[in-house]
Amino acid sequence: MAKKLTLIALLVGLVVVCIYASVTVRRGFSTRDSPSTVEAFVAQRTRDMAIPAKARRMNNPVSASPEVYADARAHFADHCAQCHANNGGGDTPIGRNLYPKPPDMRLAQTQNMSDGELYYTIQYGIRMSGMPAFGEPVDNDQDTWKLVTFIRHLPKLSEQEETEMQHLNPKTPDEIQEEKDEENFLKGDANSATPATTMHHH
């Protein structure tokens, strides 16, 4: 009986792989597309199987507090928001072009995960996705637990908190250059003179 069940499972797996291959060949490999139903199912099952049962049962040792939220907001804005957005919705230039795209962490797909599942996902990442491993390679990283606490808070994130996070987001090269140009202009750098001023000296 066990051999028969194993054979059936293998056949089902083979059918899934064949369907996936067929869909992929027709649709191509562009990351701009949304995952098919089969791909979404496979990705979900892969993530579920990648998290050990022991990790699922882990309890968050960090309690919610203004200090914890402040630390986690700064960490999230600096390390996570480029893909997930400050509000956790995932609507960013990088997030929109990942495959699969980041989930909206305010919704049930993420909020229904256990604290241990969230911790393990952040700490160790998910293979074959855009989610890398963050945090120190230790069993009980407090910064990661703070992020778990903050993720629970995302559905209630206020406009004031989101605005505060915008000031903590990493600056792009263009923004850095713009700040340098403004600073040079305010210092009276000759290189920042306007064309009109330069022509006047001539």
Question: Summarize this, please?
Answer:
With 202 residues, this protein is an all-alpha fold. The protein has twelve helices and no strands. The longest helix is centred in the N-terminal third of the chain and has 26 residues.
Structure write-up:
With 202 residues, the protein is mainly α. The protein has a domain at 64-171: Cytochrome Bc1 Complex, Chain D, domain 2 (Orthogonal Bundle). Helices cover 60% and strands 0% of the residues. The longest helix has 26 residues, at 2-27.
- The overall average pLDDT, rounded, is 81
Radius of gyration: 23 Å
Q: Percent range for helical residues?
A: 55-70%
CATH architecture of the domain at 64-171: Orthogonal Bundle
One letter per element, helices H and strands E, the order comes to HHHHHHHHHHHH
Q: DSSP strand (E) fraction?
A: under 5%
Protein name: Cytochrome c
Biased composition (Polar residues): 191-202
InterPro entries: Cyt_c-like_dom, Cyt_c-like_dom_sf
Region (Disordered): 158-202
Summarize the helices and strands and which ones pair or pack.
Elements: H1 2-27, H2 37-50, H3 53-56, H4 66-79, H5 81-84, H6 93-96, H7 108-111, H8 115-124, H9 142-153, H10 159-166, H11 173-186, H12 195-201
Helix pairs in contact: 4-9, 8-9
